[in-house]
Amino acid sequence: MHGAPIGSIDVDAAARYAVTASVDKTVRVWAADGGRLLRILRFIAHDLNLRPSPTVYLRHGKGGRLPLRFSKSGDPKLEQAYSTHFVWPGNGPFHRPASPEVL
Fold it and tell me: Count of domains in the chain?
């Protein structure tokens, strides 16, 4: 089980594996025919030298530009997790390191 809400679920074309991604920053691979956990993948931004980049999404319409919510509850921790992206440090938001071994 994940330690936080699941943001996406997918199943491979042959329906052998299910994959879940969560706000707990893990991706889990499950056997689709019984739900047995096969693998946990953790992506650690610190190890890749990525930096957090909070993003504010605004909705347009009546009443001006209001912040867009990602969850029904509006839980601040969920909102922060869904609106924070990790980018390579550098001159622009998508600047990648010159060294390929970092990837």
Answer: 2
